[in-house]
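Changelog entry: the Spheroidene monooxygenase record was regenerated in this release. Current contents:
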Amino acid sequence: MSNQVAVMALVNIKPQAKYSGIARLMFNRFSLYRPQGLLLQKHMGSGKNGGFLISPSGTHQGLFCLFEGLEQANRFMHESPLLDWYRSHASELFTVKLRAYSVKGRWSGHQLQESTSPPTSGPIASLTRASIKPTRALSFWSKAPSAQTDLQQSAGCLISAGIGEAPVLRQATFTIWNSQAAMDAYARSGAHLTAIKAAMQGNYFSESMFARFQPFDAEGSWKGRTLD
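Regenerated structure tokens:
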């Protein structure tokens, strides 16, 4: 079993810093700062109001970073220029560390490694991401609104965010649940189950990843919610 630790950050940037935030989303990849032990980094935009919607948000962003171990993740939390900027310009910022216990698929060809055993109690985090084939995009997005509505109404969902590397075609959903049972109930019923079945049967994705994590060291809030 590996020692990998991931960091997820969700931010809502203050309106007056909106365009500076957009510039960072566009150009952060060219930063000279290179965290020690970084294995994978994805700086992402978000749908309107931080949801999984085709209409973009000008202020919501997500950042996912995977590190070799906890020491490197902790150092990143203290040294990252982007996180420092977020802290100074955010109306809301949520960060959480993650250890994977179930991973299926890849992200940009990268295979996350399991670094903990399945937890016996919550909370539980889930990250699903996909590269959508252009010929399947219309069908995929036609099913998104009902799945988003079900998610917002699901009992046990503590945190939810729709994020993506690129508009329309490279999307992800990050959620935290109060229990495995609550997460499974949403995943295996209603509009989400219908959408997943259609995606699998229709071969919607050129690449996908479904990962579950044990979250820890959460700080801040997202849409007024915390893990305290």
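The radius of gyration is 17 Å.
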